[in-house]
């Protein structure tokens, strides 16, 4: 578990947080409205948090039960032996590594060589680990789990592919639906840049840029907002006093 949290999944998540770029910095300057997504809390609302929790719960159930069904009473060795707890557990962990890293890759919209290194390096590190771990424990009572059991078994590779796809297909459907039917601002800009509409349709591009520069109340700091409320409160208190003084 220490290796899983520190090496196998933490580095891809860090690369996502540090190097992910929805749109370029030049585009952000041309579309100030993109900065409203932060104050509007579009990325950390309860809908998104509960969605990720549900996604994690679904993936864990899919990895556990699909592997149990796949390896149930199935011979995976040349001698006809079925999979034991070590083989099934290692396969489940392999599916976890693939599912997590593939979902991180689907989340990214801007890839750098560092992100590729962390994502694919994380997966490679897992195979190197189980290979080295099996070699250190080898004796007449133990076997190399990857070289002797799982590696030669087509069922292991098929299970990895099937379970990884089952974990990521719902998320792929979700992001496809969101981009098609309910896109966020940066999704629209990404689509325009991908289809080169900013080059082919200058009129549309200028219109979208002008919309993004419309005045908005979003972006005031809490201190400025509090100061405005304080001034309004003072004016409201002075209003009745002035009225009474005028009548008298």
> Which range does the strand content fall in?
under 5%
Portion of residues in helices? over 70%
Q: Enumerate how many helices there are, as a single number.
A: 12
Rg value: 27 Å
Class from secondary-structure proportions? mainly alpha
> How many β-strand stretches?
0
Biggest sheet overview: none
Low-confidence stretches: 216-220, 242-248
Distance between the termini: 80 Å
- Helix and strand pattern: HHHHHHHHHHHH
Integer tally of domains: 2
Coarse morphology: elongated
Mean pLDDT: 76
What key attributes describe this structure?
single chain; 248 residues; mainly alpha; 2 domains; 12 helices; metal ion binding; transmembrane; P_typ_ATPase_c
Task: Provide the fold topology.
Blueprint: H1 2-8, H2 10-19, H3 25-30, H4 46-71, H5 85-107, H6 113-136, H7 145-150, H8 154-181, H9 185-194, H10 197-200, H11 202-212, H12 222-247
Helix pairs in contact: 2-6, 4-5, 4-8, 5-6, 5-8
Signal peptide: 1-17
Pfam families: PhoLip_ATPase_C
GO molecular function: ATPase-coupled intramembrane lipid transporter activity; metal ion binding
Question: Would you give an account of this structure?
Answer:
This protein is mainly alpha-helical and 248 residues long. The chain has two domains: 2-212, no CATH class; 217-248. It has twelve helices and no strands. It has helices at 2-8, 10-19, 25-30, 46-71, 85-107, 113-136, 145-150, 154-181, 185-194, 197-200, 202-212, 222-247. Helix 2 (10-19) runs antiparallel to helix 6 (113-136), helix 5 packs antiparallel against helix 6 and helix 5 (85-107) packs parallel to helix 8 (154-181). The longest helix is centred in the C-terminal third of the chain and has 28 residues, at 154-181.
């Amino acid at each position: 578990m220490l290796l899983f949290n520190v090496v196998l999944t933490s580095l891809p998540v860090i690369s996502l947080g540090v190097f992910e770029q929805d749109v370029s910095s030049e585009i952000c300057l041309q579309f100030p409205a993109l900065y409203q997504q932060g104050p509007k809390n579009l990325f950390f609302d309860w809908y998104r948090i509960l969605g990720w929790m549900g996604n994690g719960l679904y993936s864990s159930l899919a990895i556990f039960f699909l592997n149990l069904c796949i390896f149930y009473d199935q011979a995976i060795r040349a001698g006809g032996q079925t999979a034991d707890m070590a083989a099934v557990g290692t396969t489940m962990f392999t599916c976890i590594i693939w599912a997590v890293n593939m979902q991180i890759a689907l989340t990214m919209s801007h890839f750098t060589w560092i992100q590729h290194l962390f994502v694919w390096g994380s997966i490679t590190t897992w195979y190197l680990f189980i290979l080295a771990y099996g070699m250190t424990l080898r004796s007449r009572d133990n076997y190399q789990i990857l070289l002797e059991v799982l590696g030669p078994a087509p069922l292991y590779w098929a299970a990895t592919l099937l379970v990884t796809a089952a974990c990521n297909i719902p998320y792929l459907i979700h992001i496809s639906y969101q981009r098609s039917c309910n896109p966020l601002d940066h999704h629209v800009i990404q689509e325009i840049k991908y289809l080169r509409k900013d080059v082919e349709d200058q009129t549309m591009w200028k219109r979208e840029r002008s919309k993004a520069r419309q005045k908005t109340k979003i972006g005031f700091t809490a201190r400025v907002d509090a100061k405005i409320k304080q001034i309004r409160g003072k004016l409201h208190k002075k209003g009745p006093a002035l009225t009474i003084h005028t009548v008298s």
